[in-house]
Structure formats: structure tokens, C-alpha cells
Design a protein that fits this description.
The complex is a heterodimer of chains A (276) and B (214). Chain A has 276 residues and is mainly α. Chain A has a single domain, classed as MetI-like fold. Chain A contains eleven helices and no strands. In chain A, helix 3 runs antiparallel to helix 10 and helix 6 packs across helix 8. The model of chain A has no long low-confidence stretch (mean pLDDT 88). With 214 residues, chain B is mostly helical. In chain B, helix 5 packs antiparallel against helix 8. Chain B is flat. In chain B, 49% of the residues are buried. The model of chain B has no long low-confidence stretch (mean pLDDT 90). The chains are: A mainly alpha (276), B mainly alpha (214). Chains A and B meet through helix 1, helix 5, helix 8, helix 10 and helix 11 of A and helix 3, helix 4, helix 5, helix 6 and helix 7 of B.
Chain lengths: 276, 214
């Protein structure tokens, strides 16, 4: 990749690269200086405004929020994956009566914002006598919307398995269900693993909607904390850093899984992530 | 149903705000994405690192965290802007990272002979990117960028959580007045679905029209 757009630099190109490096570093330094100046001019750099974040009770509280985030993410991921698998198999079914509803669900949910689903669960369900506990008010909409995303991942995985595999299984006398379960799905599972992990990062990001539900996950915990101690920007920066560390680790895991899958003769694919 | 029809002006206003935010932040995201991808595939190591860090950071932060940080945090350091403007800028910066990644995968999909030929003709890095590589890269990523556009439309709804009155917030307000959640939220959902369907239709047409016979 690195040599697609430029050759080994000659003397003139090296000079230009040095120039661009200096210019880039200067712009970066200017941005950092500007940020520091804004922080300092508004008294946000004062030690006592950052000191609390070096204390254990603060971190115990924030890690509690992170734990709730993880819990919501794991539970909704489990439900969404089970639902997604069912939807994917439904969409690949030979019966129209199964195929159409599954396709309709996936296509419909893909075009509805998760926040709208959250509002629906928050405000619509209680009117019909279904007032879920806070945890489920966050988990249900996330599971509903992510099931569609997982369904598309699983379907792509099944379709990436060579036709011959399923045909060979049928030729050996396995039923359609057996060939799916014993031959196609195990191969598909290995290929979709990286996409699953990167989708889970997206789901973890979605749990920040707990902010709206007032379920005490990481972001809402940060809001409560900021309202309590008045350290708005500090709290939200710390919260953002926690999200960054957790998600970046998961993304790195997805990449290394992707490399090991590719190494084992898996498909060379382009994963283009969709923002969420 | 009348709950929906009585409040059409509010819904229309919300839809207009959603469309404005979508259009403005998509333009911004495209600009950010182009700059970032140019830095990322370029020969200057420092700029490559900066672009990589930018993409990794923004892809791994929830958009809502960025919105909350910008709307409630930035005024603390003396940066004040309108609510909608702030939301548009944040969404543009966030989606820009995704567009950059889509474009980069398009650039990587181009055969290396194209870049070599451009250099052999004496084009500079910027020229070969502008005249040879990016036009071809864009053609191969019409569909992914269309998907990013649809996701961006959905993501503008998060601005409702920090107080922008766009379609989702408008629906929520009308529901608080009328207490008829099903028709109201389904109506809002249909509006989003319509926007997504239009975007899907346009990208489908674009992709067919721009497809290069190989």
C-alpha cells in the first residue's frame, strides 16, 4: 500500500517531505497551544480541577459506570446475535413466508435511528402497560436495532462460503438443516468473527444512549458526576478517554482476528465500517 | 392519526432541521474525509500518523460523547457557538473519519499501475491523487459512502439528546402534548425511512452510471 502513490524519495522529494513535516508539526503545536491557552484563560487548568481524577473514589464511581456499560453491551449483544442469526437464516430460507418478513425487519430497522427506538420504549410502551426496568429500556432498543446489523453480517458470512460446500453436504445425504449446521455455519462463523467484534464496538458505543434513558452507564454516570462537582469539561474528557481505551482495544482485537482469519485462507475483504 | 396531522407544521420544521443538518454535516464530512485520506496515503510520515490517530480516535468514541463534550464542555473553555452549529461541526468531524476510511479502501483497490503511470507522466503527488487516483477511487466506494450518508442521517437524531429540535425531538415534543406515541413515532420513523430510501435510490443510480466496465 505505502508505495502505491509515491516512490522512494529522491533529494528533492526528501526536502519537500521535511518541509511538510515541519509545517505539520507547527500546525499541531499551534493547535495544542491554542487549546492550552483556552483552558488556562478560563481557569480550567487549575490543579484542583483535575486533582479529583487522581483519587480512587472517583475512579471507583466511573469504573462502576463502565461495568454497567459492559453489562448492557454484553446482554444486548447476546440478544442481538441470537436474533440476528435467526433473521439471517430466515432471509436465506427457501420459503418465501419466512424470507420476506425477515428481510422486511432488517430493511426497516436499518433505517430507523436507535434514539427513536429508545423514545418508543421510553414513552410508547408504558402507555400500553409495559413499563420495563431502566436496564431493559436501554437494552431492548439496542438489541432490536443491532439484531438487523448482526443479521446482515451473518448472511454475508454464509454467502461467502463456497456453494460447493453446501452442495457436497447435500450430496452426502445430509438434510438442508444438517448441512447448514454441520458444514456451512462453522465455516461462516470463523469468517465473520472480525466483523462481529467490530460491530460489538459499535454496540458498546450505542450504550451511551443510557444518557437519554438515565441508566447509570459510563456517560450518564459522567453527567451525574459533572452536575455534582461542576467539573464539566474535565469529567467528559475523562469519560471520553475511558471509552477510547476500551473501544480501541476491542478494535485492535478485531484487526488481529482479521489478520489471522485472512492468514488461514479466508476471503480478502474490504471492511468499510458504517458510522453509528 | 389526527395527532400526526394536527402537528404537521412541527414535524415539517423538525424534518427541515434534520435535512439541513444532514446536508451541512455531509459536506463538512466529505471535506474532512478528503483531507484526512490525502494525509493518510501521502509520503509524509508525521501527517500519516496524525491522520491515523484522527481516524482511530473518532471511530472509537461514541458520537453522543463527542456531542455532550462539545455542547456542555466547550463553553467552559470559552468556545461558544449555536447549538445546531456545534452539532453539525461535531457530526462532520465524526463522519469525516468514516468517509476517510471508505476513500482509503477505494484508493487501495486501485491497481498500482495507475499511480505508477501517473508518476511516470511526471504528475506530482497532489496531481496524481486529484486527476488519477481519487476519481477512480470514488467510483468504487459510491455504495459505502451512500451507506455512510444514510447512517449520518440517522446519527443527526442524536443531536436531539443535547437539545437540538430536529425530527426525533419534534416527534418527542408532539408526543408529550398528544400522548399518542405509536402514530407519532411511526410517522417520524417513516420520514427517516423515506430519506434513507431516497439516498439508496440516488446511490444506486450513481453507481450504475459511474461503473467502469473492466
Amino acid at each position: 500500500m505505502s508505495n502505491l502513490l509515491f516512490d522512494e524519495p529522491g533529494p528533492r522529494a526528501r526536502r519537500r517531505i521535511r518541509l511538510a513535516t515541519v509545517a505539520g508539526v507547527l500546525v499541531l503545536l499551534a493547535l495544542v497551544a491554542l487549546a492550552v491557552r483556552q483552558f488556562a484563560a478560563n481557569g480550567q487548568l487549575a490543579a484542583e480541577r483535575w486533582q479529583p481524577y487522581a483519587t480512587w473514589p472517583m475512579w471507583r464511581y466511573l469504573l462502576g459506570g463502565l461495568w454497567s456499560t459492559a453489562l448492557a453491551a454484553v446482554v444486548s449483544a447476546a440478544i442481538a446475535m441470537a436474533g440476528g442469526l435467526a433473521l439471517a437464516l430466515g432471509r436465506l430460507s427457501r420459503r418465501r413466508a419466512v424470507r420476506l418478513p425477515a428481510a422486511a425487519y432488517v430493511e426497516a430497522v436499518r433505517t430507523i435511528p436507535a434514539l427513536l427506538l429508545v423514545y418508543l420504549v421510553l414513552f410508547a410502551l408504558p402507555r400500553y402497560g409495559l413499563d420495563l426496568p431502566l436496564f431493559w429500556k436501554l437494552v431492548v432498543p439496542l438489541a432490536v436495532s443491532n439484531a438487523a446489523a448482526f443479521a446482515e453480517i451473518f448472511r454475508a458470512g454464509v454467502m461467502s462460503v463456497e456453494r460447493g460446500q453446501g452442495e457436497a453436504a447435500l450430496a452426502l445425504g445430509l438434510t438442508h438443516g444438517q448441512s447448514m449446521r454441520l458444514v456451512v455455519l462453522p465455516q461462516a462463523a470463523r469468517r465473520v468473527l472480525p466483523s462481529i467484534v467490530s460491530q460489538s464496538v459499535g454496540l458498546l458505543k450505542d450504550t451511551s444512549l443510557g444518557f437519554v434513558v438515565s441508566y447509570a452507564e459510563l456517560l450518564y454516570s459522567g453527567k451525574v458526576l459533572a452536575n455534582y462537582n461542576g467539573l464539566l469539561i474535565q469529567t467528559y474528557i475523562v469519560v471520553a478517554l475511558v471509552y477510547l481505551v476500551v473501544n480501541a482495544s476491542l478494535s485492535a482485537l478485531a484487526r488481529s482476528l482479521d489478520r489471522s482469519v485472512a492468514g488461514r485462507g479466508g476471503p480478502r475483504r474490504r471492511i468499510i465500517r458504517v458510522p453509528r | 392519526m389526527s395527532a400526526l396531522l394536527d402537528h404537521l407544521p412541527e414535524f415539517w420544521q423538525g424534518l427541515v432541521v434534520t435535512l439541513q443538518m444532514t446536508a451541512a454535516s455531509f459536506v463538512g464530512a466529505a471535506a474532512v474525509g478528503l483531507v484526512i485520506v490525502a494525509m493518510r496515503v501521502g509520503p509524509v510520515p508525521v501527517l500519516r500518523t496524525v491522520a491515523t490517530v484522527y481516524v482511530e480516535t473518532l471511530q472509537n468514541l461514541p458520537l453522543l460523547v463527542l456531542l455532550v463534550l462539545a455542547v456542555f464542555g466547550l463553553p467552559e473553555i470559552g468556545l461558544k457557538a449555536g447549538l445546531t452549529t456545534t452539532a453539525i461541526v461535531v457530526i462532520a468531524l465524526y463522519e469525516g473519519a468514516y468517509i476517510a476510511e471508505a476513500l482509503r479502501s477505494g484508493v487501495n483497490a486501485i491497481s498500482s499501475g495507475q499511480g505508477e503511470a501517473a508518476r511516470a507522466l511526471g504528475l506530482t503527488f497532489g496531481q496524481s491523487l486529484r486527476h488519477v487516483v481519487l476519481p477512480q477511487a470514488l467510483r468504487t466506494v459510491v455504495q459505502p459512502i451512500g451507506n455512510i450518508f444514510i447512517a449520518l442521517t440517522m446519527n443527526t437524531s442524536l443531536a436531539a439528546a443535547v437539545g437540538v429540535v430536529e425530527l426525533t425531538a419534534a416527534a418527542n415534543r408532539v408526543n408529550l402534548l398528544e400522548a399518542q406515541p405509536i402514530p407519532i413515532f411511526v410517522g417520524a420513523g417513516l420520514a427517516y425511512a423515506a430519506v434513507a430510501a431516497c439516498a439508496g435510490f440516488v446511490t444506486g443510480r450513481l453507481e450504475r452510471r459511474l461503473a467502469v466496465a473492466r
